[in-house]
Every structure is written in structure tokens, then in C-alpha cells.
Records
---
Amino acid sequence: MRIVVSDCLRGIACRYDGGAKPSGAVLSLCAKVEALGVCPEREAGLPVPRPPAEQRDGGVWSADGTNLTSAFAAGAQTCLDKARDCGAPLAVLKEKSPSCGPTCVYDGSYTGRLVKGAGVFARLLQEEGICVVNEDVVKACKPSVEHPVAIILGTGLGHLASLVRPVRRIGYHDIEGFPAEARPMEGHSFEATIGSVDDVPVIVYPGRIHLYQGYSAAEVSALVRHAHRLGACDIVFACATGAIEGNAHTGLGIISDQINLTGRNPLAEWDEIRDVDSPFVDMTDAYSPYLRTLARGVADDAGIAVEEGVYAGVLGPCLETQAEAAMMRQMGVSYVGMSLACETIMARALGMNVLGLTLATNMAGDGATHDKVAEVAAEHADDFERLVRGVLRLL
Ligand code: SF4
């Protein structure tokens, strides 16, 4: 996988003050991918050190009053050309910089005040459709023993649990909020394993319960709260779905967004919601663009066929009618299923980074049987395993 990285995050002393801002998490990522280091300001021929520059009135000005708008534009364009040439789907750029900052920049007053917005180079990459993140995103997604990656597996995908080098096992019935009477469906197991996969700390939950079994939205999201209590920052949800004709095919998919059609919301049933600052959880980019891009990169490198699309969560348990499938097609839905919607809402409420992976086992509206789901899951088991392991290795 190729990525574009701000040179100063790689430890290169190219900043206006003559220094660098190396990030351990970014350096660790760079060691696992093909990283193209860029510095738009150096490409513009600006000296090191130099007076600080900030964006103001649609241009870029240095603290000594020099108009640097053209220089910044030229440097950004040169770096964009390099990014295009290398075909990188991801850029990790230094936040706050008038060139590289992905989400915020200084406000032009040279007082240290920040405003929402992007640097000149970051903007070009975003317009190009490249996923641009800052160093904090990479750091926040980096697992450790204190922050294992949580993986919740669905029907036919539970075999991934066998890859874990176990340290400890936890029966679901010992998990707070998980219903004591629940029994696993065929293909699910109710024992979580804490351990590692390829030396990456994980906690794997090889099964789940569903709203359609009569459980509440709070109960179906109990595993998410458990993972969060154990320190997980990243959470991977995997589930079987139906593909919506015209928008997706059967096979592996990366979930880009969701529409909650279950009519339920775990936050409305969660006592702790009364204690949080605001119950209005931001669901923008609910499925982490960074994790999605890593998954796409792993799939491309490994020759794994994946599509990407919007997931619609429905209550179930009956499958969709043809009219419902047609409606979802119009709504832009690619995958329909009965598991993720509440889990993802809870994970976002807890500030977790979500990656949603699905195996579309049938076309929605065509019917599906448990045997068929298991059969298709078995066909894609190797690819699914390679995809998840590939993402874990990059984190
Ligand atoms: Fe770092 Fe980008 Fe500024 Fe260069 S232009 S010093 S890479 S933030």
C-alpha cells in the first residue's frame, strides 16, 4: 500500500522553525507501507528556517507580511502531482499547517488561534478523493495491550477466533448487560477471547445477539460497551448481509456508512446517556475513513475482491420483500442486514474507531437460508481472514 506523508512527521527538519515533528505512530505506519514523503513548502523553494505563514483572506501570508499565496499553490501542485503518480489512496498530513493541515489551520492572526479548514495541499488531495488524515488519527487507531482491537464476528465468519493466541477467555454471560438467557445461534459462539493475532492485541467476540431475537438495543450493544471497558479504541464489525441489486454484488464489502431502519437506538435505552455531555452523538464518518482506506489498500495489494457501500440495518427477522429491496436501491443502500446498526451507534457514542466488513451472501429479495450463508461464508473465508489480518498488521 502506498501513502503520502508530511515529511516533518517523518522526522525531517523542514518546518518553518527549522525543526521536525516526528510521530511514533506515523513512523510505525511508514515502516509497513510504501511511504512517499512530501513537503509542499520546501517544494515551493521556501528556506528553512523561515517566518511562520498562515492563511488569511483566501491567501497565505508570512508573519513579515510577504504574500506567499503563489508559492504555496505551486508547492502544493507539485506534491499533488507526485501523489497522483504514486497512486496513494491515503495521506497522513501534519495538522494545523497552512499547507498540510487536514481539518484545522491557524486563523491568520499569528496568535495561535485555530479555525476549521484545510491547508492548501490538503485541500487539493481532498478534492482528488484521497483520504486525508492527521497524525492524531493514526495514533488513535494504533492498538496496544492496553488498547486491543475488538472484533465482533457474525454468522459464518466466526472462524477468525481460532487465529487468536489466547491469554484469557470470557464467557458472554459474565459480560455486564448481556442477557443471561441468551444462547448462541448456529455458527456463533458466546466466549470472547483476549489475546493476539500476528502479535496485534485483540479481543474477539465470535458471535452476537440480534434485535429480532427479542433483545433490546441496549442488550445487542453490550459487547461494544464491554470492549470499550477493556480499553479497545478500534472495533471491527463483521456480518453477513444481502447485496442490493444494482448497488452491490455478493462477496466481501467494506461498509462506508449506514442507515438505521431498525426503529431502535441503543442510546435511547442506555442509562449512562443521562451522564454524558450531549446525547447528540455525531455520526459523521461513523465508519472510519482511515480504517476503510487501510482495508481497501490491503484488499488491493492482496488481490482480494471487495466492494464498498452503505449498510442498511433492519429489525428482521424476515428477509426483505422485492419492493423493500427496490426501495433500498433507490436510497443508495448496498448491503442490508440485521446486526450492525445499533452496535455502530454505541461504538461511536463511546468514541471508538469503527471498521465495518460484510460478506454479502445473497442478493436481497432473492431469499437466503442459513445453509446458503454458511456455504458462501466458507467460500470467502480465506479472503476475509487475509483482509482482517492485513488491516491488523497495518495498525
Ligand atoms: Fe511539514 Fe507540510 Fe509544513 Fe512541510 S509543509 S513542514 S511537510 S507541515
---
Amino acid sequence: MKKVALITGITGQDGSYLAEHLLKQGYTVVGMIRRTSTVNFERIKHIQDEIELVSGDLLDEVSLINILQTYRPAEVYNLAAQSFVQTSWSQPVFTGEVTGLGVTRMLDAIRSVDPAIRFYQASSSEMFGKVQEVPQRESTPFYPRSPYGVAKVYGHWITVNYRESYNMFATSGILFNHESPRRGREFVTRKITDAVARIKLGLAQELRLGNLEAQRDWGFAGDYVRAMHLMLQQSEPDDYVVATGETHSVRRFCEIAFGHVGLSYEDYVVQDERFMRPAEVDLLIGDPAKAISTLGWQPEVSFEQLVTMMVEADIALLKDEHRL
Ligand code: NAP
Ligand code: G4F
């Protein structure tokens, strides 16, 4: 019998990489999608015939219960969220409903259908916010700086609470920023690599950004989904930081991305107040020691490889789109 895994957020960046990884591991993959008026399967269209898609929403517990009863998954990966930090200031209540309370809805649906299901919660380094320790590890206190970060802290603690209250296998992966050619274009890395490609191909003249000094621990999404799967194969549920242990500024990301196509970022980047945040997370750098020693996990893609991979992918995509 093949193991069944349910992924919420399968149409997102991580959902698509995790689905690919679980298929390779021999799982039956069920992906929960929400109803939209137009299809948004861009990231999963290459594996659509190999996975099963089912309608549901983290805002609707009835749909979660029905899906669990129908598919009887052994593992649930809860990746769905309103995941863009900037939007969480303009839609704080919605962000709390999906990114925070949505976790409780899924955990409680699991508790009522089959408490033996193993659960993965997509927690975030944004929970460390105004960092209380450098580098950040599992024991570092949280100090979130956005409604998104606050909602993720709630999601993390409700996961711990269901583990302790009901003895459920509920695990929280505290993942630092991870990127790829499938990253949404609103996030700074993809915004930069998309702009570099457009400028190089003569399709744009400038790139408007906010805070260039923010520092992030950026890894490759394809590496990070392997850690999610490993967490659910352990004998006990726990919390794990997943990170590279390196940090770089947005400015440095620009320097490498523009440099890769023979341009200087200083000639094209314009700072724009509109992209500044009401409260910033200045520095994130994770300590992945526990994930390395307990899970046997290692990142394989370096920061420079990540940046150049994304620039190359955006150039290829635009050339194709514009028949260049
Ligand atoms: P993403 O690309 O923004 O994908 C989010 C997914 O959630 C999409 O499939 C989206 O569906 C779905 N979704 C949103 N609201 C939903 C709802 N109410 N019900 C059901 N599905 C809903 O995010 P990602 O980068 O893959 O991140 C995956 C998870 O990891 C998120 O929880 C994020 O907060 C967390 N995380 C990400 C990072 C990172 O650096 N990427 C780091 C730490 C934690 P649509 O396609 O229909 O919009
Ligand atoms: O790419 P970002 O929008 O990602 P952020 O806020 O770090 O959040 C991402 O990573 C989290 C993990 O730490 C996830 F939980 C979350 O779901 C998401 O995936 O911004 C990165 C940095 C920020 O400091 C921001 O102020 O880049 C800075 N930045 C500067 N100019 C910009 C811009 N960010 C965006 N999105 N757009 C800009 O123009």
C-alpha cells in the first residue's frame, strides 16, 4: 500500500517542490486547492497527472474533515497560508484567520478524524522578528514584527499545544527564507531576478525596492522540502530550525544578480518608500545544527548558485514569452 500524503498549499512554491519529492519517495500525493475563478496550476502542471487535487480551504473546517475522511492520509503537510509579509499589514484579520487559525482548524480536523495522522506545520523565521539571539535556534524567544509573524507564532504554539494536549504527532518546521525560480514575483529575490532579466533583455529600465540593508538567511526551496519530509519520519514529533547558517543583505543579492549578467545594480536600483515596512526584520540567520544532526539534512545549493539559477531561469522564461 502506498502512503498517502495531503499537502495544503500545493499550488504554492513549496507545495510544488514537496509534491515532486513525495512522488519520488513513492507516496500517493493529494493536494488541497481552493476554488478560484481562473486556474492557477502553473507550478504543478508538469505533475498534474500524477497527483490528486481536491477542493478545500483552511477557512472551512468542514472541507478539511471531508478531505481527511475521504483520503485517509498518513501525513499532512500544512503549507497553505497568506504568506506575504507586506500584505499582512493591509489584511491583518484575514492573515490571522488563514495563517493562524487555519492551523487550529486542520489540527482539530485531524484530532476528530484520526489523531494518528502525522502533521507538519510550516512555521517561519519571521517569528524571531526583532531577534533576541544571533544565530536563531529552536530555543530562541520569538518577537514577531508583522501580523504575519504574529499569526505564525500562534500557528507554532497551537501545534505544540495539540502535541502536548492530545499526544498527536504534530511537528513544527521553523524554516528560514527559501527561494527558487518558482518564487512569487512579489518576494524580493524573485522581484530582483525578474527585473535583472527584463533589464538585460531591454524590457525594463529600473528596479524599485525598499530596504536594501535587510539581511536574510536564503536557501533553495528544493532543499528545504526534503527537511519537511524527514521531520515526519522521526520517532517523535519536535521543532526544527531549517536554515543555511549564512546571511546576506538585499543589496548583496542585487550585486550578484546584476553582476551575473554584466551589469551594476547601482545603475538600475531606485529606493522607493512604498516598499518600506512599518516594522522591519533587520537580520535573520539560523542555526541548523539540530536539523543536520537529528534529521541528517544538508542544504545542497549555495547562495551564489541560488541567485544565478533564478536569474538564468527568468531570462529563459522571458525569452520564451517574448519570443526573443
Ligand atoms: P506561497 O507560494 O505563497 O503558497 C501559499 C499557498 O497557500 C498557495 O498554494 C495558496 O493557494 C495557499 N492558500 C492560501 N490561502 C489558503 C486558504 N485559505 N486555504 C487553502 N489554501 C490557501 O508560499 P510558500 O513560499 O510556498 O510557503 C509555504 C508555507 O511555508 C507558507 O505557510 C509560508 O508562510 C511558509 N514559509 C515560507 C517560507 C519561504 O521562505 N518560502 C519560509 C518560512 C515559512 P493559491 O495558489 O490559491 O493562492
Ligand atoms: O522577500 P520578502 O518579502 O520576504 P520576507 O518578508 O522575509 O518573508 C518571506 O520569508 C519568511 C521567512 O523568514 C516567510 F515566512 C514569509 O512567508 C516569506 O516567504 O522580503 C525580504 C526582505 C525584507 O526585509 C524586505 O523589507 O526584503 C526587503 N525588501 C526590500 N525591498 C523587499 C523589497 N521585499 C519585497 N517583498 N519587495 C521589495 O521591493
